Amino acid sequence: MDMDRYHRDHATILEQIETLRSLSRAGIAGNAGAISQAIVGTASLIKFHLAAEDQVLYPRLARSGRADLAALSSRYQAEMQGLAEAFGRFVERWRVPARLQADPEAFRSDANTVLRALYERLRREDRELYPAAGRL
């Protein structure tokens, strides 16, 4: 299975996470507009990436005829639901610059939690799920 698109998506999402970190370190209130734009851009990337996984990757692994790949696919898909919901709440709360300006420390706390979980998930996919799918 060709995994290039998924790897490119991950690289782009990781770049967006780094952009958010850099903007936050430079000052949340002063960079609220740019942070808001980065959050919305990241959300869009993730939405399309998740759709590709849900519509192509996971079903292909489930139909692979290999019980180990089907179980791996099922586990990753189930785990992603909780993270996707948490990320959706994060986007909804922090996509508005005025909210970032009003409570930068709450944003920093939420970002540390949600973006770290997202980062760790992407890295696990790169180490476990994508190599397995690439061998199909």
What does this structure look like?
By secondary structure, the protein is mostly helical. It has one domain. Helix content is 88%, strand content 0%. The radius of gyration is 16 Å and the shape is elongated. The model has no long low-confidence stretch (mean pLDDT 96). This is Hemerythrin HHE cation binding domain-containing protein.
Structural class: mainly alpha
Mean pLDDT: 96
**Tertiary shape:** elongated
SSE order in H/E notation? HHHHH
Helix content: over 70%
Q: How large is the count of helical segments?
A: 5
Pfam family, one: Hemerythrin
Protein name: Hemerythrin HHE cation binding domain-containing protein
Domain Hemerythrin-like: 4-133
What is the strand and helix layout of this fold?
Layout: H1 4-26, H2 32-62, H3 67-94, H4 97-102, H5 104-134
Helix pairs in contact: 1-2, 1-5, 2-3, 3-5
